[in-house]
Amino acid sequence: MKIASFNINGVKARLPRLLEWLEGCKADVVCLQELKSLDENFPRLEFEDRGWHLELHGQKGFNGVALLSRAPLHDVRRGLPGMEDDPQARYIEGRHDGVLVARSICPMAIRPPALNMITSWISWSICAAMRPGL
User: Fold this and answer.
1) What would the pLDDT profile of 71-125 be if each residue is shown by its tens digit?
2) Which example biological process does GO assign this protein (predicted)?
3) What are the structural domains of the chain?
4) How far is residue 41 from each of residues 4, 77, 81, 98, measured CA to CA in Å?
5) Whole-prediction pTM value?
6) What contacts 112, CB < 8 A, 6 or more positions away?
7) How distant is the alpha carbon of residue 115 from its chain centre?
8) Nearest to 89 by CA among 62, 113, 111, 115
């Protein structure tokens, strides 16, 4: 299985470049970050018409993550386990051929208390990824 990642930095601005890149990409799953788009505004048909299945976790203006796959994903989760009410769209996961694929965006900060928040967020992510049943 081949997994690729692309920091799109805004789907509206980078759509042509992303579609061009996907044409040559031989990945089974593509992880996108920084969609900067709500799910309902994401140009879904541009991808579906090219044979991609989409799982989105978007946010207007900031963040946003997605998983594109050649086959439908299973067990999709949006938001870190235990943090599903987090208003920031920073995490999505789904299974492809029994493999759990996750895309996350770590909060960025350069001084406390934001650094404490980042440390907690990373710790939470690691614990979530190691949860039983995976």
Assistant:
1) 999 999 998 777 767 788 888 999 999 998 988 887 665 556 655 666 666 666 6
2) DNA repair
3) 3-105 (3.60.10.10)
4) 23, 20, 26, 30
5) 0.82
6) none
7) 22
8) 62
